[in-house]
Design a protein that fits this description.
alpha+beta; four-stranded antiparallel sheet
Length: about 180
């Protein structure tokens, strides 16, 4: 089996990370994989905000936990030191799907580089707040964007989980 198909089958969501920061070189490789994701009519409406600043990461984690309804101190990012936030232009008809493909590519790239990753939701709600809309403005990002999700990254501090059995009757052929 080729490397890509192996990575697809072996990649799992990691929910416990070492505190060690990932090198910028590895982060950039993961981001580049995301930027090469397919998009409707090659519109490339998705953007990525890379958060490696611990204070900003922890603040984002607190808001994400609040949206999730978790008690204060719960870390929905599972200790991952890097959060890659994917947002997509609302005026693009396939923005949600395009942003989702970006996250999928980044998760596969992370696995291939020996990193753990996990898709974390609630970016939509975070970037509906005035504080995070202002963050985009402060970064020089213009236009209306919707948060698609977070791809957290780091070095796993757990065994790679085994894949669940695939459910039957999920493929149908018309020959």
């Amino acid at each position: 089996m080729n490397e890509l198909l192996t990575a697809i089958k072996e990649r799992r969501s990691i929910r416990k990370y070492k505190p060690d920061m990932v090198s910028k070189e590895l982060i950039d490789q993961v981001i580049e994989a995301g930027l090469y994701a397919a998009s409707g009519r090659n519109g490339q409406p998705a953007i990525i905000v890379a958060v490696t600043n611990k204070e900003t990461r922890d603040k984002l984690s607190a808001l994400n936990g609040q949206v999730m309804g978790m008690p204060e101190g719960h870390d929905p990012f599972y200790g991952a030191p890097v959060v890659l936030i994917v947002l997509s232009r609302k005026d693009w008809s396939t923005y949600l799907y395009d942003g989702s493909l970006v996250i999928g590519n980044m998760m596969l790239a992370a696995h291939s580089l020996g990193l753990g990753s996990c898709w974390i939701h609630r970016a939509k709600q975070e970037f509906e707040t005035e504080e995070y809309k202002q963050l985009l403005v402060d970064l020089g990002i213009e236009g209306e964007y919707e948060g698609i999700g977070h791809c957290i990254l780091g070095y796993p501090d757990m065994e790679l989980p085994k894949a669940a059995e695939r459910k039957e009757n999920r493929v149908y052929y018309i020959d």
